[in-house]
Structure formats: structure tokens, C-alpha cells
Design a protein that fits this description.
Elements lengths: L2 E4 L6 E3 L6 E8 L10 E8 L3 E2 L6 E10 L2 E5 L2 E5 L5 E5 L4 E5 L4 E9 L3 E8 L2 E3 L7 E8 L2 E5 L2 E5 L4 E5 L5 E5 L2 E9 L4
Antiparallel strand pairs: 1-17, 2-3, 3-4, 4-11, 5-10, 6-9, 6-11, 7-8, 7-10, 12-19, 13-18, 14-17, 14-19, 15-16, 15-18
Length: 193
């Protein structure tokens, strides 16, 4: 099985679609795609001030708070609070969304898939065993805190905080060991009519 480590320190920052900040692209498909034509995209953003989110028509999004204080997201007039207890929210990229920082800058992990092409699922995992769903075509493990080793077959990949392991679909068990917590991102074809 092919796997590739993406070190956080090697990520390149690019401007947000709306120009209001910067983001570091972790991975996108197809490779080299722009904000207008990606099929899926994973990125990390540093947010230092309140403001509107870029609109992404036809895109499903999940935002995960990875460090900093609370983040209030107002999505089409409804306010959601992302914090240590509830750090994740899924919403439509079509929706008018605005972020407000309640206690200083934050860093978030953003997963986006283009509807009718792909869909995504995210879950938190710790030391133990993970298994990908049968429909998954590609997956990513992002270390949120601590450090973890990911064993695939006879290969051990050592990851530090905010490092990512990209891996192709597998039905094998994925062994996770260490003292940290990860987010597992699975991307699958969108089979909806």
C-alpha cells in the first residue's frame, strides 16, 4: 500500500479564496487544481481575526478546530461554537458563513469535497486499530496533538503534531501507537443520485 508523509513544516501558504487570510494546502485532487476546479481539498488555516468565509458553491465542508480558543461560526444565521468539547462542524460551502474568535487566534483543519464527485467522513482516532470503510479511495491521518506511529504492513511512519499521512485505500488494519490524537479523513466517490 502506498503512503506518503506530509510534514507540517513543509506546507506552503497561499491566500484564501476571498483574500482575507492564508491557508496551507495539505493535499488536493486533482494535483495542481485551483479553488474553482478541485474535486477535494484538505488545508490548514491560521485565523487571526473575525470575518466572512469564502463561498464555495457545490462544496461540502468540515471544519475542525485544531488549536487556539473557541470559534463561533455563523452559518446562514445560525451560530455554532467550536471548542475543545465540540471541535468539528460540517456545512455547505454554498452557505453564507462568518467566523468570530472569542479568545484569540485559532488554527483549523478544513476538508472540502465537490458534491456529485466525492464525499468525505471525518473521525477522531487514538492509539489502537483503525479500519477504512470499503468505499474509501484515499485517506489522511492528521496528528492533532502528541506524536503517533502508524504501522502499515511492515512500515512504521512516525508523525509529530500537525503532520499528515496520506494513504491509498486499504482493507488492512491500520495500527496506531503513541500518546496523541488524530483525525482520520476518508474520501469516497459520491454515489448520491
Amino acid at each position: 500500500m502506498k503512503a506518503r508523509v506530509i510534514r507540517h513544516r513543509d506546507l506552503v501558504r497561499v491566500p484564501w479564496k476571498n483574500g482575507g487570510g492564508t491557508t496551507a494546502e495539505v493535499a488536493a485532487f486533482p494535483e495542481g487544481s485551483s479553488f474553482e476546479n478541485f474535486s477535494w481539498r484538505i488545508s490548514m488555516a491560521d485565523v487571526a481575526s473575525d470575518g466572512p468565509f469564502s463561498v464555495f458553491p457545490g462544496i461540502d465542508r468540515t471544519l475542525i478546530l485544531v488549536e487556539g480558543g473557541d470559534l463561533e461560526l455563523e452559518v446562514e444565521g445560525i451560530v455554532y461554537t467550536l471548542d475543545g468539547t465540540s471541535p468539528k462542524l460540517s456545512f455547505s460551502g454554498d452557505d453564507m458563513t462568518c467566523g468570530r474568535l472569542s479568545s484569540g487566534p485559532i488554527r483549523d483543519l478544513n476538508v472540502m469535497t465537490r458534491r456529485e464527485q466525492f464525499r468525505h467522513h471525518t473521525r477522531f482516532v487514538e492509539s489502537g486499530v483503525a479500519l477504512l470503510s470499503e468505499q474509501t479511495v484515499t485517506a489522511f491521518l492528521v496528528v492533532l496533538d502528541g506524536s503517533l506511529d502508524v504501522t502499515l504492513g511492515s512500515t512504521i511512519h512516525s508523525l509529530q503534531r500537525l503532520d499528515t499521512l496520506a494513504l491509498e485505500a486499504t482493507h488492512d488494519l491500520i495500527l496506531l501507537s503513541g500518546n496523541g490524537r488524530m483525525i482520520l479523513i476518508e474520501i469516497a466517490p459520491d454515489a448520491s443520485p
